[in-house]
Each structure stands twice: as structure tokens, then as C-alpha cells.
Amino acid sequence: MSVSKKPMVLVILDGYGYREEQQDNAIFTAKTPVMDALWAKRPHTLIHASGLEVGLPDGQMGNSEVGHVNLGAGRIVYQDLTRLDVEIKERTFFANPVLSGAVDKAVAAGKAVHIMGLLSAGGVHSHEDHIMAMVELAAERGAEKIYLHAFLDGRDTPPRSAKGSLQTFEEKFAALGKGRVASIIGRYYAMDRDNRWDRVEQAYNLLVEAKGEFQADTAVAALEAAYARDENDEFVKATVIRAAGQADAAMEDGDALIFMNFRADRAREITRAFVNADFDGFARRKEVKLGDFIMLTEYAADIKAPCAYPPASLENTFGEWMAKHDKTQLRISETEKYAHVTFFFNGGVEDPFKGEDRILINSPKVATYDLQPEMSSAELTEKLVAAIESGKYDTIICNYPNGDMVGHTGVMEAAVKAVEALDHCLSEVTQAVEKVGRPTAGYR
Predict the structure, then answer these.
(1) CA distance linking residue 319 with residue 323, whole number of Å
(2) Could you give the percent of the chain with pLDDT greater than 70?
(3) Both 287 and 376 in a single domain?
(4) What local confidence, expressed as pLDDT, does residue 442 receive?
(5) How many domains are there within the chain?
(6) Is the same domain home to 106 and 150?
């Protein structure tokens, strides 16, 4: 006879934090009776989620991936950003056999080296210093045709902050006497993670065919034109950079393409468009047989492409420990954070552990989440409460993405609505937890 279990429930309110300043503070402004009661009557604490405490450089802001990796590991895990910074400083990066091998192969065949990635100082998905190092590596090894395809940020950086970065790279190429910024496009298109393939298609066509909605002589001129169209960095439309007399930067068979994002979740879709023979996200108007497609880090175990920096093995994570002790566990979230409660929480392990179930709730199909700040929280809560009351699980790990996804839009009114929607959900969740006989506590 099976015994009904009383699960330990970890509810992660992604992007939900603590700040004493009240101005522009959505959490302070919102009506949150449930969280207020938990904070007043239940054990609670504040935890650090940035810098050295989560394996990042001192002063570097944290992010969802880093937080979930550290939570799942139960210890400080040094991150790819830190690892790459050290490799570049010590110049071992420039001897990386995967990166240098791809460049050497392209140079020997007279082919181009294409470098793509999020041109950002944010340090969340990439860092522009790493992209600069890759440009230098290609130039040092004799590449003459170096094309940078810049994905613009505006989410982990201020909305209109790309100009300085683009100027720096244009000056670098001028100093080298070779190479150029070949295209710019907002991360909204190039770095989707919710199967919005119409967005990814625009980025793919820009890179492969050198065709976009707009064209400009320089990257800075292209950005200024985008701003004039009222497009912030994140939403800059596909723009080809080519001055009169410059060669076409369309990809050709035998070219090398190096993807300089180190974070996996927003790198997967466009990577699959390039490397999967059976790709069906959209009809590729042009398929190119690259000499090499290089992932800076491993984006997914089933993506068959060389990886410059394979993942360091993380042993005895929370999920692994639970499985070894024959405990059952559930991971549940919306599409936007599903990878975080599964892949990242499990230390980069793609497949579920023994006894681990997963529930994916589709995030709403809206252009930006300020248009639906509650997202799919009602459906997520319904499934979560049912799982708590099922008596099936020893542990449940849940992520509500609203705070992060709506907060990134910068729309205060929507952020307040998101916080209030979360508070309503917490009411149902805490009642379910207490109903099965578990205490509740909180942290921010």
C-alpha cells in the first residue's frame, strides 16, 4: 500500500527580488497580501544571487541560468563567463583547438570566418569582450574575410546602448585592415526560445543570404536608422551592412560559423536551423554546407556540432541525489523557464533523472509579455496545486517566470499586474501546501 507523500515545494519567483528603494519598485507598489503575510509570520531570509556568491566576477549581475545552476548544485558553481574571462586573459583561448581549427580550415580553403553572437556587455548570454577576442583570434591566424553578425541586446543592457559597442568593433576592423560588421539584428529575432520560428527565420535569412528588410553603409548608421524607426536594440529589424564596393557577406559552402553565446537556452533554435538536417521550424530558402559550425559551449546534447568549451561535469546535484535515494520529483514551469527548472537545475543534464516528472505549460503567444502580464500563471497554478495534492511527489520544483519576463519589458504598470497575479497564485499554492501538512517559508 503506497503512502501519500507530503512534498517539499520550492517555488521560484523568477525576477522577483528585494529592494528598499520604493520608487519604480513594482513589488512595493503592488498589492501583495499573501507575500506580506508570509514575510510577517513565517521564517524567511534574503539570499545573494549575483557576483562571487554564484560563481560570477565580483559585481556581475546574476541571471536565471546562473541562479538555477547554483540552486540545483547546492554550492557555488563557477560560470562560463568567469571561465572565458580567465582563458582570454591567460591567452589559452587563442590556442583553443576547436576555435583555431575551424579558422585554420577556412583560411586554408580561402573561405570566410563568420562570427555571430549577442554583442553585449551584459554578461548574461555572452560578452562582447569574448567576441572581440574571437575577432582577434581569426585575424591572428590569417583570416582575411571576417564577418561579424551582431545580435543586439537591450534586455540585459539599457534599451538603446549598442552604439558604443558597434563603434568599437568598426574601429577594430579598421585597425586590422580586414573584416567588418556584416549585419545587425535584435535578439528578439535571433535568440528566440519559444518556438516562434517566424522570428528565427528572419535572422537565418539575414545571415545566410545577406538579405534583410534594411541596408546601411555602416553598423552605426544602421542602428541610428533603427532608432529613427523607434526600434530599441532588442527589436532592431534585419539589416545588411554593406557599403558601395564591398563584397557580399552571404554564407558560402565551406565557410566557418562560430557562435559566441555561452548560454544555451536562447542559442538552441538558430543553431538547429543551421545544423539539423531534418530541421522543420521553417522552410530554409538556402541551405549552406558550412565547413564548421562551432558552439562556444554545449547548447544541447543532441545538437551535433563541435563545442569549444564542453560543460564541466557537475556531480551530486539535487536531482541526482533524489534519484539515487529513490525519491520522486516534479519540475514544472512555463515554456520561458522550462529549461531552467530542468536542464539548468540539473547541472546541464538534459534527460530526466529516475523518478523525475516534468510538466510544461505553454507561455502565451504575445509579442511582449507586458501585453499579458499574468502569462500562463493560472494554468501553471492549477497543475501545481494538483501535483501537491496528488501525494505522488517527495519534491516539486516550480518556476513562475512573470517577474523576469514582464520586468524586462520595462513597463511599470504591467510589472505591478504581474506581481499581483503571482500573489494570487501564491495564495492557492500555500493553501495546498498547508493542506497536506507542510509548513511554508520564504526567501527573496
Answers:
(1) 6
(2) 98
(3) no
(4) 55
(5) 2
(6) yes
Nearest in space to 328 (alpha carbons), one of 273, 390, 377, 267: 390
Report residue 165 as a C-alpha cell: 559597442
Q: Kindly state whether residues 298 and 420 are assigned to the same domain.
A: no
CA distance 400 to 403: 8
Pairing mode, strands 292-297 and 256-259: parallel
Give the pLDDT confidence score for residue 384 in this predicted structure: 98
Ligand-binding site membership of 337 (annotated): yes
Domain stop point among 255, 277, 309: 309
Is 143 annotated as a binding-site member? no
pLDDT in tens, 301-325: 899 999 999 988 899 999 999 999 9
d(CA 230, CA 228) in angstroms, rounded, equals 5
Q: What is the CATH number of the domain that holds 368?
A: 3.40.720.10
Catalytic residue among 2, 4, 50, 64: 64
50 is catalytic: no
Domain edge (last residue) among 309, 344, 371: 309
Q: Which structural domain range is residue 288 located in?
A: 80-309
Packed helices 163-176 and 219-228: angle between N→C axes, nearest 10 degrees: 160
358 is in an annotated binding site: no
The reported pLDDT for the residue numbered 3 is 72
Answer whether residue 27 shows pLDDT above 60.
yes
CATH number of the CATH domain containing 111: 3.40.1450.10
